[in-house]
Structures are given as structure tokens and as C-alpha cells.
From TrEMBL:
Primary subcellular site in the record, as a coarse category: mitochondrion
Protein family according to the UniProt entry: Belongs to the KAE1 / TsaD family.
EC number(s) reported in the record: 2.3.1.234
HAMAP family: TsaD
Lyase as UniProt keyword: no
Presence of keyword Kinase: no
Official protein name in the record: N(6)-L-threonylcarbamoyladenine synthase
Gene3D superfamilies reported in the protein's UniProt record: 3.30.420.40
Amino acid sequence: IRSFTVLAFESSADDTAVAIVNSERQILSNVVRKQHALHEGYGGIHPKIAIEAHQRNMPLAVQQALQEARTSVNDIDGIAFTRGPGIGGCLSVGSNAAKSLAAALGKPLVGVHHMQAHALTPLLTCSTEEAPVFPFLTLLVSGGHTLLLVATSRSEFKILGTTLDESIGRTFDKISRLLELKWSNRGPGAALEEFALQTTQQDLESVPALPRPMPKRLAFSFSALHSAVERFVYNQGGIGNIAMSTRRGLAMGFQNSAIAQLEEKLGLGMDWCARENLNIRHVVVSGGVASNQLLRTRLSTFLNNWGDHPICLVYPPVALCTDNAAMIAWAAMYRFLDNDFDDYTIDLRPEWSL
Ligand code: KG4
Ligand code: ZN
């Protein structure tokens, strides 16, 4: 059969992304224009600024994606876009581009669920031997998501747990800022990881035990951990009064607590799957926080010691762990190949459960 080539748009949050992927799993181009610098001062994504940046960036991103793939728009067989969930105004920039382009070219259109696309990414990036087999668990840990999902097929997913307050990535960012760490060029979370590398047992013992919220519940929470660190710093009269060794202890103590929570919820997720008679052999961990080396080591040890059969931990490459349009193209590919298309008039789903 002939190869099928998809051009995909993603603009659900603060990244403007366009990618071209074919049915042979080749990523011909993967353009991501980040907006971090525009939102830094707001402590989160400012919707109006994000929409305006998508509007400026999207035409350039499409142009670049076609150039890098050395593809003419006439060689594109289908157009995909993120239908939801996300910020309505942001989603509309990618979806309007996709719908108009598909209609103008007379090509089929598919709207994709952003979380399903994250969960299916390893089926694009892993070799056949390493690719996860259904059913598998997915842990999405980024600035935007803290989610535990079970994927039972390419189109059936269930959310087992999400965060009740802050995301894990934003908590890393805020603790990093509180400790006044210099951002390495990889950002605040990576700076915290690097800072904590030199921590000794004595440093760890110089800080109080940090809370592990909501044991036994399939939901995440990071605000109690965040405020415990804040309270400690406040009670010492500010970060300036805290010795470097104690700051390192705080950074490491925070990471230990946050990762322990991921381990616990992953365990509860495995228990849930066992009760549903789902035989889990793979766990996919994705999102910006999944680049944390301590997290990877701890989760893989945790899974190696789980139950009576080994469970493999799978990571997409970091560039495809974070928001991108290649994952949108791949999630749509299955539907294009099944001739299962959407109308050019399809609506958005800013709130869209799985
Ligand atoms: O997926 P992502 O790039 O973007 C969105 O959330 O949209 O995730 C970014 C998050 C930030 O909070 C960042 O600080 C965190 O991932 N992060 C890390 C590390 N690298 C990035 N957190 C902990 N350790 C790291 N090495
Ligand atoms: Zn995402």
C-alpha cells in the first residue's frame, strides 16, 4: 500500500506546533515554537497573550514544517489538528488553520484528543520490540498535566487520576524559584534537579519530613508539599538565612516526596488494573518532568520490584514527551488509514474527557 502523509497542527496551550509524519513512522518535520519567555512574568499561561502568539507563529510554523520536510502541500494526504482539551482561543488558531487548509485542498480532516496523542506517542517512536502493548499505563507529568491513564486500545482510554491542585511541573518551577536557583538553559525544573545532585544524608536530615498527601487515593496533590517547603523557608526568615547545605536538603527532600507520590499512585493504578483483570506489561512516562533522571531511576526500580512479572518503563524522546504536533499526526494516522474522517465544520472540545 501507498504511504500516507499527515500534516498536523497543535496549539492547545502555549506551544505552536506543526509536524509532517508519514505512515512509515517517519517524522519528516517537527516544528515547535515555544512561548515561555512571554508568560514567565505571569506565573502561568496568559490566554490572550498565548492566542496572539499562536496567531503570529502559526503561518511561519507551517511554512517551516513544509520546508524542512522538503514537501509540497500537494504531497500531503490528510490534515490533523488538536480538537481538545485546551484553552478554547488557543485551540481555535490550529483548528481554523487545519480546517481551512483541508477544505481548500479537498483533503480529509481528523480532530485529535490531545491526551490520547500523548499516550500513543511511543507507538510512533519505539522500535517494534520496545513498543508498549495494550493495555498499558501512562503517567503524564508536565507543567500542564499530572495524569495517570490506562490505554486499553488505540481509541479507548480511561483517566485513573489527575491533580486536585497544582501540576507537578509547576510545583518544581515554584520550588526552584523559592530556592532562588539560576535556571540552567533547560529551565527551572532541570536547575532544581542539578542543584540537588550534591545532597548528602546530613543535608537531608537538616530539613523536616515533608508531607505525602492523600495516601490510598487515585488522585495527585502537590499544594501541601509546596506549602510545607514555603513554610519552612518563611519560618527561617527567608531563603537568605538558610545554609546552602540545608537548601540542597530541601531540594532533594522535595524531589523525594514528589517522586514517592508518583510511585504510590502508579502502584494504586497497577492495583486498579489487576482488579479489572488488565494484564499490564508497560508503563509509559511522558511530559517535561519525565526528563528528570532521579524520577526515571526510581520509577524503573519501583516497577522492577512490582509483582511477579517484570514491567517495562517506556520513555519517548524528550522532544516528543513535551507538546508537539508529531504526536497529533500519529494519533490521527490510524483514523486516516481507516477512512474515518471528520467534517470540515467540526467543533472544538476545550473540555473533553477521555
Ligand atoms: O511538557 P513540558 O515541556 O511543557 C508543558 O508543561 O507544557 O513540561 C515543562 C515542565 C516544567 O515545569 C519544567 O520545569 C519541567 O517540565 N521539567 C523538569 C525537568 N525538566 C523539565 N522537572 C523536573 N526535572 C527536570 N529535569
Ligand atoms: Zn500536553
